[in-house]
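Appendix B. Extra example for self-study. Work through it before the problem class; the solution is given directly after the inputs so you can check yourself.
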Amino acid sequence: MEQHVQDEWEKFSELLAKISGYSEAIGLLHWDLRTGAPRKGAEIRSETIGMLSGEMFRLETSPLMGKFTEFFSRPEVMKQLTAVQNTIVADCRKEYDRSKSIPSKRYEEYSVLAAHSQTMWEEAKENNDFASFEPYLSKIVAFKQEFIDYWGVKGTRYDTLLDMYEPDLTVEKVDDLFNRLRSRLVPLVEAISASPHKPDTKFLHAIFEKEQQQKFGLFVLEQMGYDFAAGRLDESVHPFATGLNPGDVRITTNYLLDNVTSAVFSSLHEGGHALYEQNINKELVGTPLAQGASMGIHESQSRLWENMIGRSRTFWHRYYGDLQQHFPQQLAGVEVEDFYQAINSVANSFIRIEADELTYNLHIIVRYEIEKLIFNEGLAVKDLPQVWNAKYQEYLGITPPTDELGVLQDVHWSGGDFGYFASYSLGNMYAAQILNTLRKELPEFDELIAAGNLLPIKEWLTAKIYVYGKSLTPAQIIEQVTGEPLNPDYLADYLEVKYTELYKL
Amino acid sequence: MEQHVQDEWEKFSELLAKISGYSEAIGLLHWDLRTGAPRKGAEIRSETIGMLSGEMFRLETSPLMGKFTEFFSRPEVMKQLTAVQNTIVADCRKEYDRSKSIPSKRYEEYSVLAAHSQTMWEEAKENNDFASFEPYLSKIVAFKQEFIDYWGVKGTRYDTLLDMYEPDLTVEKVDDLFNRLRSRLVPLVEAISASPHKPDTKFLHAIFEKEQQQKFGLFVLEQMGYDFAAGRLDESVHPFATGLNPGDVRITTNYLLDNVTSAVFSSLHEGGHALYEQNINKELVGTPLAQGASMGIHESQSRLWENMIGRSRTFWHRYYGDLQQHFPQQLAGVEVEDFYQAINSVANSFIRIEADELTYNLHIIVRYEIEKLIFNEGLAVKDLPQVWNAKYQEYLGITPPTDELGVLQDVHWSGGDFGYFASYSLGNMYAAQILNTLRKELPEFDELIAAGNLLPIKEWLTAKIYVYGKSLTPAQIIEQVTGEPLNPDYLADYLEVKYTELYKL
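Solution. Structure tokens for the complete assembly:
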């Protein structure tokens, strides 16, 4: 590398490190707001988050960033950079080009609103009061519509939002993937409904003391290889994982007293996200590549741990005894096979994060359809509860009795995360396809789980996926790991095999 | 106010709000690092704190700040501002003039170091290993010496540091105050040593479960009027209070299993700081006046609650029954008067924060003398343990057996807080003088405490002190509240009366 290129790279790295620093601070301010910050400080806190988000945005779209990305994109300079360096430049350039024309004041106002409206959502959910939340959500949608114009529209307006979480994802692609998936899921769900086999799930809903739930959750995270010296587990209304820096990747969960599995599966889920972030190559630290390749790939890791491992028969043959020890009274007389059947019982239900693996994707399709309506058809926010309920009736055959169990259940929209939900089903698809390869390359997969030796699985995922962070695209990762592009049939196959056996179809 | 002055004021207010935002973020990053951030994230975290501190420093010393403070200091503009506005300008101008020539890069490096070295101090203290901490402390001292040159020296070099925490405080003034105080304390301590009365303190050191200590601490904070909707209580190695914003003023404590009073008194102490910050006039929010008048005044409030209220006989006549209920076995058969005598037992001991009210001031004088030696006489950091031990022998007649019980006990130096310690004894002096007025203006003072009705006391302090924040100087506050300047005789009188009775002298 020529000296002047190296000098420029050092200055560029300082800018990137500064952006990472802002991101860490904003992440902590958010985490704190969701895990126990005092209520009376929330309003000023939202302004602080907005101010810092605005500053970070200013750096990402600054003339200096423009200058650096232009310089490092010159062919004679690119030749001197490593592949990773070129990817860093391309990533910054994409963000710069996309956002540079948004006035940073507007972005700051939006960030204040998004932070504040998450607090308003928490209250609205608690009080089952959509009306109090509606004005905030309307403003967020208006901001997103405004930003879509700045970001630029290639296909449909909603495509612009999908691309934020999954590069190059479009309505056309999602429609195709979801149609293919649905065409295979619907007959399966119907067959299950018609099946006389109805697993008993009552015992999952005794009273399970929080302290014991917490202990078991910590135990499971330890088993997965989650590094507590580089993370911590807290409580929040809606579980989440957040990577503040590679040595500080936190997760939260929510303990439901009358539901023993909710916190277990959310810990496995968020733990999967966290394993990813904890194991990104340390050389990427301080660059925009020190994060997941996309939200779809991120969700593939959370869903793989939560479902493909966490809801497997083998997993519970190993760990059910531990769970029973934590709840000897509640689970007395419940056999492991009963438990396995219960946690995989398929039922059309209201709450996405508590849904079974099969109908889960229908919950996602509902949200995806609604977001399309909002951004491509102009659906008004005030009509969301009604449309939500109608879609649940259409796709799941049930109508939520309250907004708390309906349109208010998810945190995402309150924080402006429109376009995110598709990532969950994409994640399921990626996960099933990755699992297929994992089983081939680690033939002792089941034996490892049966022996409670999950670390080789974590290590395989680290070597194949985690370590790359965002230095590969989702398409590159899935090709490199599995040898073919994303194919929803793996998920359909996986679900068919699992549920045909479970429901004796 | 002329329109253009008003326009400028609005822009100035935006700058101030931005500085407050940085301060909140930095405060939270620090709080989190001390209360449970994962170890492996601490190093990058320190850099993030440093980066943001550098940004904040850049704003405080920016040409824009120079321009505003110059403009608002013009006589024709000053006339148009309120008294509070003029104080804001003066405060910003003082900081700007003092620090503008420090290169912001240097300040940022210092901030990274200070954050990191607090973590190193925690480890060094845990391992009783001064040598591992010495290089960090040496660098901090070197930075302070460098900054003193930038800040400017009027009297002695150490005066410059004293002035940071207490405006216009000098070695000359502190020497005088401390000499006057010591001349009255030494005979009192001697008389106590000679007294045959030796209160039994053994029962304070049974095993006291943490959960119960925590419950009692929360109860006491509630009694004081600490607003939990605008704060929270956590644990840290060294207790502290931090005002992130006026609706978010947090305190920490440290539970010692074999010491029932340590956490109680630290909660009262930090609670006193927090009451101050929670009750500052909301109109000062977003300005540099939304903090305590000085660290001396701040400590007067923590020490007043901790000692003058919290170690009073009346307080325990009301609350001892509650404490006993939390520890029925450990305190069985211990009468309230025994307890009162025990918590006020005077003994030369190693740990400042666990010292009695009387010898506490000697602990401060030791630190003050050592800081003077470092900054005015060039005492080397490597010699600190030896000098520390010698001073303890000289002032308290005991030599710490380990550095953990000696020079490593306090967090302050690790974070660069040289010049702070004097504030504690100043605080004791201010507190005794304020208490004297408080008793006159609220003659039912003892009855209120006896009835467990502490809120009128909080309200009196709010109206007289808290509400003003930093809009009055310490000199103005003490004059306005008590009608005279700071006078150490009030503290000496208070201690003489209390201990003459206690020790039947």
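Self-check: The two ends of chain B are 63 Å apart (CA to CA). If your reasoning did not lead you there, revisit section 3.
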